[in-house]
Every structure is written in structure tokens, then in C-alpha cells.
Amino acid sequence: MRLTDFQALSFDCYGTLIDWEAGLAAMLTPWARSVGLDLDEETLLAAYSRHEAAAEAGHPLEPYPEILARSMRALGRELGCPVGPDDARRLACSVPDWPAFADSADALAMLSQRFRLIILSNVDRASFAASNGRLGVRFSAVITAQDAGSYKPSPRNFETLLAVAARLGVGDGRLLHVAQSLFHDHVPARQAGLPTVWINRRTGRPGWGATPAPPDPVIPDWEFPSMAALADAVAAEIA
User: Fold this and answer.
1) Is residue 86 annotated as part of the catalytic site, yes or no?
2) Residue 31 sits in the same domain as residue 51
3) Of 50, 110, 177, 233, whose CA is between 20 and 30 Å from 227?
């Protein structure tokens, strides 16, 4: 396979295009300090990841801001520290403030000249709309957890993606899924028959950060450390 064999690219957003670990840490770290917890950022993110995955699996119809608040309260209970209503609300309302990775907008602009671009995101429509302005491109379709009625890694999200791609005229086997999380994206995407690109934003860092470890071994078809590197690889094929 060549990258340029595909007609469309579907993207996870948070973790791949938007720096969700930075966004989460900006809320969780000050809270941890305020309640006297001496935990580094990686430890906090890893602990939080378990609760968000459980909240999404157990409450698939809740909007993402409610998932964030629920997950933070569960984290507080695990750590034996209070999470007040204001703490939970600040995290729930923080998605519009989460920064884009520095290379996301330019890479998407380049890729949009060659491919249809689709978002498959574990948030709600309002949260993604706020982030979309940071990315600078118009997507051919946006599919959120609110649209699918479930959160990744549910197969339902990828069934929805394939149906949307077909309506856009993307041929069988011509959709390539691009994502950071092996847990949320690569394992279920491969189960759905999709080839994948791993944007390994944690290259050189230990652990899984704000995502749980993948439940099954998975080998993406391509791996790049950044969106810029993916765009460069496409440009090299075109050249």
C-alpha cells in the first residue's frame, strides 16, 4: 500500500490533532496540588485514563463534558481526595481551551489538497466545534460520540464511520484511519477492516499517558511521530 492510494483520511481529534494530555493536565495538576497530592503529570494522566474509559463504556449517551466531570469525581474517590463542583465543572468546560499540536493545521491543509478529511471523535458536537477553529480546515464529515451514540473503542463508532465514508463516495478499501490511541482507535479500526496510521505523539516517552493500554496486540500499517511527518511522507510519494 501507498499513502496516496487512499481517497479519504479519517482522524481521531483529541490526542492526534488537539493536545488533550496538555488540556487534561492543565486542569488535573492544579487540582492535585490544591488537595495536597504529590503526583507527577504522567501518574495523574494514567490514573485518570482508567476512569474516563470506564465512564465512556458505562454511559455511552452522556455528552462528553459530563463524562469529564464523572471521570474526575471517580479519580478523586480513588485517590481519597475531594473533587468539588467547581473542580469538576472546570474540567468539563475546558475542551475549547485545549491547544492544537503545532503541526496539525499545516499538515491538515496539505492533506486536504489530496484527500477527503473526516473526523471521528470521542466528544460532543459543541466541544468539537470549539476545537475545529484551531485546525483551520473544513472537514468533509464530522462524526462525534454524540452522533454515533457511543464512545470509541465501541465498534459502533467505526460502523458509523464506514457508512458515512460510503455516502461520501469513498470506495471500498480507500479509507485510511489516522490516530494516536491504540486503545481507542487502532484496535477497533483494524477489527473493522480499516488500515491505520499511528501518529505516535508519545514517541520516546514511557507508558500510555491519558489512554489505557490496548487490550490486544495491534500493528498499525504506518507509524509517524507527528502529523508533519505524515504530511511529508505523502508529499514525498506525490513527488
Assistant:
1) no
2) yes
3) 50
pTM of the model: 0.96
Predicted confidence band of residue 1 (pLDDT cuts 50, 70, 90): confident
Domain boundary, last residue among 97, 127, 156: 97
Using alpha carbons, select from 164, 160, 163, 157 the residue that is nearest to residue 181: 157
What are all long-range contacts of 85-91, with beta carbons under 8 Å and residues at least 24 apart? 87/31, 90/27, 91/24, 91/27, 91/28
137, HSE (Cβ side, Cα atoms, 13 Å): 23
Give the per-residue pLDDT at 127: 95
In total, how many domains does the chain have? 2
Statement to judge: residues 91 and 110 lie in one domain: no
- Most distant CA pair in the chain: distance in Å? 57
User: What pLDDT does residue 155 have?
Assistant: 98
Domain with 24, as residue range(s), is: 20-97
- How far CA 183 is from CA of 14, 65, 129, 209, in Å, comes to 13, 21, 24, 12
The C-alpha atoms of residue 115 and residue 175 are separated, in whole angstroms, by 10
Among 208, 225, 226, CA closest to 52: 208
Q: Note whether 72 and 82 are same-domain residues.
A: yes
Q: Which of 12, 87, 124, 185 is catalytic?
A: 12
